[in-house]
Amino acid sequence: MKIVSAEVIITCPGRNFVTLKIRTEDGVHGLGDATLNGRELAVASYLRDHVCPMLIGRDASRIEDTWQLLYKGAYWRRGPVTMSAIGAVDMALWDILGKSTGMPLYKLLGGASRTGVMVYGHATGRDIPEALDEFARYAEAGYQAIRIQSGVPNMRSVYGVSKGGGTYEPATKGRVDEQYWSTEKYLDFAPKLFEAVRERFGFDHHLLHDAHHRLTPIEAARLGKAVEPYRLFWIEDPTPAENQAAFRLIRQHTVTPIAVGEIFNSIWDCKQLIEEQLIDYIRATLTHAGGITHLKRIADLASLYQVRTGCHGASDLSPVCMGAALHFDLAIPNFGVQEYMGYPEEALEVFPHAWTKDGGLMHPGEAPGHGVEIDEKLAARYPYDPAYLPVARLDDGTLWNW
Ligand code: CS2
Ligand code: MG
Asked: 181, 220, 274, 347: which has the highest count of C-beta atoms within 10 A?
């Protein structure tokens, strides 16, 4: 199965996506997602200029050896750009293996460990009533797990709330938005949001929330403790995780479960968090954490410490990543939940897919490989449109964690 071509396709059906397409001499092709929100061209160049030429002539079935070559061979290991490029190659090679054997990816990973994949959606609102109404829509649609985010009174910006309906997209076209954050106002408000959810909807739904790296460890501990009566499924990214030991401080004070990892790109980013059981869910993704080959290693390490997966699935991970993730989620033993924010209609048209969705439950389908394709003609109608993630500042202008 010699590789004869490896090309990068950049398209912007509602938002930018970077897709790697690898083709073998037998005419089998595989796709991998290489999208890194706000830094798409960096990964595209890393692939086009440095990786794709190395792939030509290689045996597509040597997935592990290719992973090791791209990881160790770069010398400059790890990092979101490198690991997203490796992730895209790895996803494409597993896709080719599935197509050449006629096997859906989940069967190559050991077969189904569950009947379907529980996904969570995003209930957002500018205030509590609006967020609760959105929560009701997800509950009526049959979701068991729902994330809730709301505007905070007297805060100049809101996090995680879609601007004027449609799927939430944090990147802004052509500029870096400056948003403002006040931890004091947030900590005072957040417990009221969860209390309102439990009062109106009871405890039948898994309730998730994203603090998006904005608290210090002791502030995260204070929040976790304050919301224990509302039994959250998890608080996500409570504090920046470069210092993995910081989570010991949170763990000392609260039993509210913690999810971290959407910005991780290797097992080294989470080894201590997992081994010391400082987290309950690991959110690393196939795209940003080196593909199926590496994320399987992370999930296997996590399973030794009863840590489950909760893969990031924002709309800036392409449908190719989502398709592959659903296979991964169906197969691994320590699956927790999969984020699914949904996609703009035009994105789903550019990326035909085999997955099915019934309320809050998804299935990757039985198509060989990961089951997601790209309509290249349609993709060409949506040229790259530069867009960047915001930054956050405190009221006094201090640059903070967005
Ligand atoms: C968020 C993301 O979905 C999440 O949990 O953290 O929306 C994140 O902000 C974006 O993926 C960044 O591109
Ligand atoms: Mg998040």
From this structure: 220
Q: What angle do CA 131, 136, 141 make, to 5 degrees?
A: 130
Domains in the chain, CATH or no CATH each: 3-104 (3.30.390.10), 108-368 (3.20.20.120)
Q: Can you say whether residue 111 is alpha, beta or left, with left for phi > 0 and alpha for psi between -120 and 50 degrees?
A: left
* Residues 9-35, mean pLDDT to the nearest whole number: 98
pLDDT tier, 355 (very low <50, low <70, confident <90, very high otherwise): very high
Tokens of 326: 């659903």
Decide whether any atom of ligand 1 lies within 6 Å of the 212 Cβ.
Answer: yes
User: Is residue 212 flagged as an active site residue?
Assistant: yes
**Atom of ligand 1 at shortest range from CA of 168:** 7
Amino acid at 375: D
Nearest CA to ligand 1 atom 6: 212
Identify the helix (H) or strand (E) that includes residue 19: strand 17-24
Question: What's the CA-to-centroid distance between 101 and ligand 2, angstroms?
Answer: 36
pTM of the full predicted structure? 0.98
Distance (Å) of CA 71 to CA 54, 149, 185, 198: 13, 37, 43, 46
Cα radius of gyration rounded to whole Å, the chain: 20
Helix, strand, coil percentages (3-state) for the chain, rounded to 5, are 35, 20, 45
The residue whose CA has the least distance to atom 2 of ligand 1 is 314
Active site residue 288: no
Q: pLDDT tens digits for 289-303?
A: 999 999 999 999 999
